[in-house]
Design goal:
4 copies of one chain form a homotetramer. Chain A has a single domain, classed as 4-Layer Sandwich (Chorismate synthase, AroC fold). Chain A contains 8 helices and 18 strands. In chain A, the strands form 6 sheets. The first copy, chain A, has a 5-stranded antiparallel sheet, with helices on one face. Chain A has a 5-stranded antiparallel sheet with strand order 9-8-10-16-11. A two-stranded antiparallel ribbon of chain A has the order 5-6. Chain A is globular and about 65 Å long. Strand 11 of chain C pairs antiparallel with strand 11 of chain D, so a sheet runs across the interface.
């Protein structure tokens, strides 16, 4: 009972990696928002496997179908159901997994929790599950665009293993990010990242890294203290993504070494608006957006599925070894960029509607 | 509309720093759990201001009263309301705040969101709000203890600014943590931390740091994919605490530099149980606990309230300066230790009940 | 885990008939709404025991205290906690109840559910629990008044046992209702009702009846299909009140004998607005208000507590007899009028905020 | 944002009468429950149009597909998505409806709420929406059967217009109900009902009536005071069904004329169990089931769509007339029987899981 996210713009995802399909139902979308399957497909294509040489070679077309909630190109205010059929199943790749727990995967814990699992390709714990999120995120973006004309949410790869990028988060554009297959807008770092990913795949190993995300031109006033603070909901959204290990808002862990006098964001007037001279807060103070850029960082662990032999145990509790067959991502980050953006859009959209409910001018 | 936390063990907090009082209503607590005001008071005393020379000198007694839901020392299964009266109000300390926005505080954002705020002492954004959480956390611990006899949740200060502690998280005990006023179980580091805090206060400045928390002997099976993953709910819980900037589960950001072959936790059999040989996962895989130690780290920024003059603007948008009067914590971490533990207990308790709902053997 | 009501204007009540107190936390109230303890007290006084010769003679002052969420007479947008202390406890009246289940009361079912109960005066199942609802309803009315200047919610006693009133629901005013102690605006029927209640009390028996409620000048557009239809939420609200047995919206059960051609409400234009020529729908079509009067009826059973001897069993499963001591209402309806109004206001207020979230013009 | 129902066994429905399809996502279903498409199809066939001469002649096959959450015939504990494709669209039947509001339908209110509507065949307000409920209800029944071996939920037509049936609710069986096309187990009354429905259809008119439902062998202890009382959730569930106008639990409105001494259900011991000698309570006391039969009645209005000319207005606010073309039910009750059962099963299943969460022996 954890497949629903959001209070007012509320999504419920469904689907395993194998079976009839993957999808999402969005309840609470405002009416009369323009949306088409093409709007959704664009984002799905960014998360699709097989899109480049550094992602998994599985070819999944992932065509979406809007089943309900849209009429003549506009949302009805009723639930929007979106379905993506599963294809390209190669169950023979997974036959080992019926009996052996993959290290650092969810096989063991699903078994512990439910006493049953769909062992084909990860089942519900597969990253395929994020299709529903990305589809819903595309709708959330359209709603946000209708509410705040200039809002803009972009995520990018900021680090792969030891390779760090230098990015001006205030200026980076989607086209800079999608300019290369690793989705890092620093072209020099991108090249090194791509080469590192290729080498690591050849070595039968995998890599992690950091994705940064920035939301520009979000209004002040979003976030619902004390539990549904904006950064709290963003943290939950990000840590609910597969393979994530950490979250930082604004200054993040670097704040722990600063003094208050250094970290505080002084207020000043700029062009008639209250602004801050620095933005260590990451655009959120007291759990509520202040109109500055909202930015955060998400840590991803190296992909758990690797080609090398690893020690593990069987379902019947014998020790054994396992080497992944099948096709997998040596590094999830390039494909995780649209997932991070989608979750950020979902959080902001939900909070925008929540704020409108209590504030006529929001 | 963000003051409720949890799905089944559901708490709703209320109260501003000034006004009638602060408290919490716990709905969904199982019946027949032993609980007394003393159980709750013990935890409240650990978060209380004025408990040592390195905390704020405000004296708040913070006596709790159980208003409902407990009969003859046992929970009834009905809502448990707990109230702590506000005292020691010194509104003259805050009179400046009616007109000026404190930098990196919630004054400006509350005004932006609600168009009104209780400017006395921070209102709802005051850390006093956490009284309700700590009180509810004390009840959650009792429930967890009734469900899992050996479960144990401890948090401690692991870092203050540049001072790092060395702690064996598998063995650390509450008495080691409460052995000193900074709540750091590494006695040498603790001494340096205390001295740094005192010096910083004298300089009119403030400090941040890191709190680590470990839950030992939690069962496998807790966590509800895909959105209510255990680490996702922990992340939200922690980022909802005042002054937090980051969260790491298990390996956290350090995972981003590791290879999969290094980071994966191999399964092995130990004493007839499936165990992992390492625990980079932090006790959670695929969003569900695996029976290993659950551990995480929370970043706190330096206290925003400092005695030094800072630039800011007034409510009527004039630039001005502000120096905090009143009494405040130069470093929130010692008092935040029970808050982190409370939020962790609330998350685990909620997920324990959720797991019981679908699994008769849980 | 059932003491929270509403999605956006969300109330959580707490308290047993005996213990520290009874109250409510309202989360999600819009900011800057004028509210005072006097506004709340006025409604509480209408539900208070001991207000007339036909209600219970228990004297409960039921003074409310706003603990939080209001500052200088205006709501802050933060949770509003309201507390009413318990007084006038006469536990000796209840000592029998520790061991015997009162027929048609909740003693047996609370024991079955929780394995424990506060047997003093009904505990959580006491009608005292409705104090929190009535207090919250007073706040909801203020919010509704701020949103829709002319909205008006009135309930009245329409029937006591065999005595039926004749009331023009489009014109009835609060002062007509509160003009007599039975809260029936038909003065002739009221007289007969009062006399019937007095006679029945003397006979050691009790009475039920019907309360009607009408909301006038509510806007079109409230209600959230398909589950949170306006009549569905009203039905839940009313059936959650103690002693209720039935609910009818608009034509109700009488619709079952009508033909479609007779029951359909034809649309017509009146003063430039789309109106219906009849209103069998009760102001709601397809789960959404249509701008006509919203009216409904609630059936109340005769009070379960009666002075006569009744057969029952003890907690240790011996058959026995029981006659209520203590002071009780021979008929709950006069005091239930403000409860029905409060629940109606809560439902409408919640749906008003929900509609605002998706519709800027709402 | 009202298409989700239930707290732990939580369903979200989607779909308009025209468009890609209709369906439901069930989140929170316990794992390892046997379920097949055939189990679901059986119930869908009972609500299907075109099943007999007294229902609409629309032929809809309504084949369901389980998209996720089931593996090798057992539930996984993950969301169960069920899809039924829309077919047999005859948009030409509806072309008038784009411009005219059907009396006592949801056309006007959807327009008022959302500013847009799918006018083809009723869109989201079509009774086709209940497909998702009935499908989910079939799953809920399987869960209930796994928890309580002897539980049994049956509904039947008790009244059509003036024709009343005589039914022994303690003994009635599904095969008696499905023995005739009107789903009334009193064969004599059934015959009169069928003939009345046929005559009324010929006259271009429509009929309402009452459905009764009984749940036998449900355990004591289900229901969550004070708002989520079992009868409150049943009332909401029933009033959320299309065309419903009233709800009675147990004695219902007839209680309003009884005296307490008559209405109270005396406790007695029978076969070692606490039982009641009468059951005016309808199996629920204080909002919690007491182990007796849970029974309730639901009022349905006559179908709004009739062949006769009716007065109405156009979307552009001109007065006009409208006669339904297309194929419609002259009386919804026969097809509403499985809907009532489904909603009852959903409520009981949700409360069963809620009770298990707090009570290990439940």
């Amino acid at each position: 009972m954890g497949s629903t996210f959001g209070q007012l713009f509320r999504i419920t995802t469904f689907g395993e990696s194998h079976g009839g399909g993957i999808g999402v139902v969005i309840d609470g979308c405002p009416p009369k928002i323009d949306i088409s399957e093409a709007d959704i497909q664009r984002e799905l294509d960014r998360r699709r496997p097989g899109q480049s040489k550094i992602t998994t070679r599985r070819k999944e077309e992932d065509r979406c179908e809007i089943l309900s909630g849209v009429f003549e190109g506009k949302t009805l205010g009723t639930p929007i159901a979106i379905l993506v059929r599963n294809k390209d199943a190669r169950p023979e790749d997974y036959v080992d997994l019926a009996k052996k727990f993959r290290p650092s995967h969810a096989d063991f814990t699903y078994e512990a929790k439910y006493g049953i699992r769909n062992w084909q390709g990860g089942g519900r714990a597969s990253a395929r599950e994020t299709i529903g999120r990305v589809a819903a995120g595309a709708v959330a973006r359209k709603v946000l665009g209708a509410l705040y004309a200039k809002i803009d949410i972009v995520a990018y790869v900021a680090q792969i293993a030891e390779v760090m990028a230098t990015v001006d988060k205030s200026k980076v554009k989607v086209r800079d990010i999608d300019a290369n297959i690793v989705r890092c807008p620093d072209a020099v770092a991108a090249k090194r990242m791509i080469s590192l990913i290729e080498k690591t795949r050849e070595a039968g190993d995998s890599l992690g890294g950091v994705i940064e995300c920035v939301a520009r031109n979000a209004p002040a006033g979003l976030g619902e203290p004390v539990f549904d603070k904006l950064e709290a909901d963003l943290a939950k959204a990000m840590l609910s993504l597969p393979a994530t290990k950490g979250f930082e808002i604004g200054s993040g862990f670097s704040a722990t070494r600063m003094r208050g006098s250094e970290h505080n964001d002084a207020f000043e007037m700029r062009r008639g608006r209250v602004r801050t001279s620095t933005n260590y807060s990451g655009g959120i103070q007291g759990g509520i957006s202040n109109g500055e850029e909202i930015y955060f960082r998400v840590a991803f662990k190296p992909t758990a599925t690797i080609a090398r032999e690893q020690k593990t145990v069987t379902q019947s509790h014998d020790e054994t070894e396992l080497a992944a067959r099948g096709r997998h991502d040596p590094c999830v980050l390039p494909r995780a960029v649209p997932m991070v953006e989608a979750m950020a859009a979902l959080v902001l959209c939900d909070h925008a509607l929540r704020q409108r409910a209590i504030n006529r001018n929001a």
